[in-house]
C-alpha cells in the first residue's frame, strides 16, 4: 500500500506562437495505490488520485459562453475544488531477471471515476479512458552502486470528436546507492503524441462544441527533468521525495515545479 502527495504549479500555456499568459494553477494531489503480488512474477495494482485544484488568471473558461450553453459548472472562479479523478488498474509481469537485468512488460487501464468537469483551466483531468502498454527495463552493472531504468510505453486514448491523441511516453532514470538503503536519482519523463494545435486548429469565435472539448484534443507534449531520493527505512517501509520541472513544452500547460512525496508499506 502506498500514499503519495504531489504539488504542481503551472504558469501559462505553450501555444504555436510561444507562451500564452493564461494565468496560474495550483494543484494538490493525494495518490492512493494498492499493489498485490499474485505470484513471484505477476502483480496487479489499483489506484485513484484525489485532486484539489485552483485557477488564477485573465482567461477563465466560462461554460455559459458556449453556444448553446454547456451543461457544466464554472470551475475557473478562483476557488479550490476537490474531487477524485480516474481509477487506474495495472498488471505487471516480471518476464526476465538475473543479477544485472530485469525486464517487466506492463499494461495499465485508466477510466474516469465519475463524470467530472473537463472544460476549464482548473479541470482535474480530461475525463477520457486510457490504455497504456509498455515495459520496464532495469540494469544494475556488476560491482557497481549505480542502476539504470528505461520504461517506454504507448498510450491509447479515447477519441473526442474523431481526434486521435494517442501518444508515446518515456520514463528513464539513473540512480546511485549512497548506502544499502538510500539512493539518489535523476530522471526524465517525456510525452510525444498526436493532437491539435492552438490557435490554428481552433479558429474564432471559439464558442462551439469543438472549443468546449479543446483540452481533450490538444497534443500536450512535454519533457520533464527531475531529481529524487529513495529511502528503504526497513523491509516494511519505503519513503521517496522528488522535484521535477518542465524543460520542453508543446501545446500544453507549462509546469514550473512539481514536488512529490511518497510512503509505501509492505505486508
TrEMBL record:
<dbReference type="Pfam" id="PF13557">
    <property type="entry name" value="Phenol_MetA_deg"/>
</dbReference>
<dbReference type="InterPro" id="IPR025737">
    <property type="entry name" value="FApF"/>
</dbReference>
<protein>
    <submittedName>
        <fullName>Transporter</fullName>
    </submittedName>
</protein>
Amino acid at each position: 500500500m502506498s500514499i503519495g502527495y504531489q504539488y504542481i504549479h503551472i504558469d501559462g500555456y505553450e501555444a504555436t506562437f510561444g507562451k500564452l499568459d493564461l494565468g496560474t494553477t495550483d494543484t494538490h494531489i493525494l495518490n492512493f495505490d494498492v499493489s498485490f503480488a499474485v505470484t513471484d512474477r505477476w502483480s496487479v495494482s489499483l489506484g485513484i488520485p484525489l485532486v484539489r485544484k485552483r485557477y488564477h488568471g485573465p482567461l477563465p473558461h466560462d461554460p455559459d459562453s458556449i453556444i448553446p450553453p454547456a451543461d457544466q459548472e464554472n470551475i475557473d472562479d478562483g476557488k479550490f475544488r476537490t474531487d477524485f479523478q480516474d481509477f487506474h488498474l495495472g498488471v505487471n509481469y516480471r518476464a526476465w531477471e538475473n543479477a544485472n537485468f530485469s525486464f517487466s512488460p506492463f499494461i495499465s487501464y485508466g477510466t474516469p471515476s465519475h463524470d467530472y468537469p473537463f472544460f476549464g483551466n482548473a479541470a482535474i483531468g480530461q475525463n477520457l479512458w486510457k490504455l497504456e502498454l509498455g515495459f520496464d527495463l532495469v540494469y544494475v552493472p556488476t560491482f557497481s552502486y549505480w542502476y539504470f531504468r528505461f520504461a517506454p510505453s504507448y498510450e491509447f486514448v479515447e477519441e473526442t470528436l474523431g481526434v486521435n491523441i494517442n501518444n508515446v511516453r518515456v520514463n528513464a532514470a539513473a540512480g546511485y546507492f549512497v548506502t544499502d538503503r538510500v539512493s539518489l536519482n535523476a530522471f526524465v519523463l517525456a510525452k510525444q503524441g498526436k493532437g491539435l494545435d492552438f490557435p490554428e486548429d481552433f479558429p474564432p469565435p471559439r464558442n462551439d462544441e469543438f472549443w468546449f472539448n479543446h483540452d481533450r484534443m490538444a497534443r500536450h507534449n512535454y519533457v520533464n527533468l527531475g531529481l529524487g531520493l529513495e529511502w528503504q527505512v526497513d523491509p516494511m517501509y519505503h519513503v521517496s521525495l522528488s522535484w521535477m520541472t518542465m524543460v520542453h513544452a508543446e501545446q500544453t500547460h507549462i509546469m514550473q515545479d512539481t514536488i512529490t512525496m511518497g510512503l509505501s508499506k509492505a505486508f
